[in-house]
């Protein structure tokens, strides 16, 4: 059975509030000095880069979380 959640150590993040009338993404960066463990439903994950994991957020927004783990480890957890 495939896992439905993964645990990651997350820090700073960027909230995407959608796009303005000029089709420019409206971003709200939130800085954090500390990382903390969070459990994320795999169904909310949209993509993973070497620095960020992109997930669904509230009201149709997206959130880019900075994560501490190694990219290859995260990739293995998801595959």
Structure report:
By secondary structure, this protein is mainly beta. The protein has one helix and six strands, in the order ββββββα. It has one helix spanning 71-78; strands at 5-19, 25-30, 36-41, 45-48, 52-56, 62-67. Strands 1, 2, 3, 4, 5 and 6 form a six-stranded antiparallel sheet that branches. Strand 5 and strand 6 (62-67) form a beta hairpin. The mean pLDDT is 94.
Order of SSEs: EEEEEEH
Cα shape: globular
Helical content (DSSP H or I, runs of 4+):
10-25%
Nearest-integer average pLDDT? 94
- What distance lies between the first and last C-alpha atoms, to the nearest angstrom? 12 Å
From the helix content, strand content and strand pairing, which structural class follows? mainly beta
Largest sheet, strands/sense/barrel: 6 strands, antiparallel
The share of residues in extended strands comes to over 45%
Number of strands: 6
Count of helix runs: 1
Weakly predicted, low-confidence segments: none
Whole-number radius of gyration? Answer: 13 Å
């Amino acid at each position: 059975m495939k896992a439905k959640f993964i645990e990651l150590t997350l820090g700073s993040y960027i909230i995407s509030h959608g796009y303005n009338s000029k089709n420019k993404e409206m971003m709200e960066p939130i800085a954090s000095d500390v990382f903390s463990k969070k459990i994320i439903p795999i169904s909310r994950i949209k993509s993973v880069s070497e620095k960020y994991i992109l997930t669904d957020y509230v009201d149709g927004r997206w959130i880019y979380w900075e994560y501490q783990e190694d990219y290859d480890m995260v990739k293995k957890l998801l595959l």
